[in-house]
Amino acid sequence: MKKVSALIVFTLLLSGCGSQKSDTSMVAGFVPDCSTIDRVTTEAKSLEMPCLDGSEIINFHAIRGPIVVNVWGSWCVGCREEMPYFIDLYANDYFKSGEIKLLGVDVQETTPQDGKDFVKSYGMSWPHLIDIEDNSKTLFGPGVPVTWFIDVNGDVVDQKIGAYLNKEELFQQVEKAFKIKL
Description:
With 182 residues, this protein is an alpha/beta fold. The chain has a single domain (23-178), classed as Glutaredoxin. 35% of the residues lie in helices and 19% in strands. The protein is built from 6 helices and 7 strands; from the N terminus they run H-E-E-E-H-H-E-H-E-H-E-E-H. The protein has helices spanning 2-19, 77-90, 93-96, 112-122, 137-140, 167-178; strands spanning 48-50, 57-59, 67-72, 101-107, 128-131, 146-150, 156-161. A 5-stranded mixed β-sheet has the order 5-4-3-6-7, with helices on one face. A two-stranded antiparallel sheet has the order 1-2. Helix 2 packs across helix 6 (167-178). The longest helix has 18 residues, at 2-19. 34% of the residues are buried.
């Protein structure tokens, strides 16, 4: 009888694990992987950056949207000030459903751990790349924060240089870039 009870409990545990996906989209304390980022397999240009969690290396030029790319550094005051707006943006239904993606690019860190700690402390539960060798400076420019809006063809359809001063400014730019209403 004990074996049958144990088997039933074990089966229920397994079925519960398989039928529900835990929602880590708003949880602080982890560094997400980059598996949700859409990209093409062939691209003439190359700017490879590792995912902050170390899971893979991604050619930035192969990324396809719609996606919002926010370039930040843990040391950057403006990045720290605007991050709550990106957290609110990521909680929007367009982002929760995956219809629009969000990607962070961590630049100019002293160590990768600084970026990981920043992601964990702010609860930034979307994928992040890290530019360890500072190669993206030629693409994004020398300062941060920078935000790009990339369409399904991989084209930059809008951008902002500098920090967002409020949530409404960010949301309005997303709406304009992707012709949606948040």
